[in-house]
Amino acid sequence: MLEVWRIVCVLLTLVCWQNDGSRASASHSAITAMLFAPSSHTALLPQVTLKVAVDVQGAVDDLDARDSFRFTSPESLDLVHRLRASVDAVAVGVGTVLRDDPSLTVRRVSFPGGISQPVRVVYDRHLRIPAASKLMTDSHRTMVICKVDAVGSTSLEFVGAKEAVPVDGSILESLKALQEKGVAHLMVEGGPKLARSFLDDGAVDRVILVEAPIRFRQPIPSGISVPLLKDYGFTCLVSYLCGGDKVSYWHAPGVPWVEQESPLPWP
After folding, report:
1. Which of 49, 84, 195, 205 has the most CB atoms around it within 10 Å of its CB?
2. Rg of the chain over CA atoms, in angstroms?
3. Is the torsion defined by CA of 103, 257, 31, 192 positive or negative?
4. Does domain 2-251 have CATH number 3.90.280.10?
5. Residue 209 and residue 226 in contact, taking contact as beta carbons nearer than 8 Å
6. Which of helix, strand or coil describes residue 10?
7. Is the pLDDT score of 110 beyond 90?
8. Model confidence pLDDT, tens digit, residues 193-247
């Protein structure tokens, strides 16, 4: 019965999309999410694709570096931007914002005109995100997942495209809140603590693991490895070289890849 309901929703969404091509009516990723949503306890929640980039030691950053830097190849970076362009929202933890001040927008690949940038989602229980950060000062939409009691105890102003989303509960509860706000496919981009929280809560459908041929001098462990993914039941669908980096695609039990026949075109 659930499968019939999902197909009906897809057909209705397609009709709306044909009548109004805006992202507000429907996005390509939203349709994909309904078609490929796994039949599990997360079936009605947004799909989650986790992207992790590590060095040869499984580290995500180098304490020896004064500033964060890109350590993957330009081709892998293009892949990340294609992934951003294919989802409804991109999530990071507040630690990533404090260290990198990212914009999390699509820039390196072509982006269809008339389609908005993906929503940026920051997991920030105590609202530590700087008011002057890119995510809080640009014109694109940002949602900050925080504790309920944090909203009334902050001087941060959430106006226009910026929104605090109070959630007291698990990662799955936050996904429910995001689903209610129109997010059908979420990309989790950083950092390692947030990634492990999603994995521990069984909320990840697919993983894109990028392993760069570099060795950090003072590595910050990601806590995520091939053996760990296997322990969580993920299966490697394919691996290939991308500008010198090893990229592998993993999917959870019962979850098909978006392009089941040929996984490489997505993202």
Report:
1. 205
2. 18
3. negative
4. no
5. yes
6. helix
7. no
8. 999 999 999 999 999 999 998 888 777 788 889 999 999 999 999 999 999 999 9
- Answer whether residue 264 shows pLDDT above 90: no
Q: Which residues contact 155 (CB under 8 A, 6 or more apart)?
A: 131
* Cβ within 8 Å of residue 20, ≥6 positions away: none
Question: In degrees rounded to 5, what are phi and psi of residue 208?
Answer: -110, 115
Pairing of strands 119-123, 245-251: unpaired
How far, in Å, CA of 46 to CA of 41, rounded? 11
DSSP secondary structure string for all residues of 212-232:
-S---SSEEE-S--HHHHHHT
- Model pLDDT for residues 14-70, shown as the tens digit of each residue: 333 333 333 333 343 443 443 344 434 456 899 999 999 988 888 887 776 655 667
Dist. CA 93–CA 129, nearest whole Å: 10
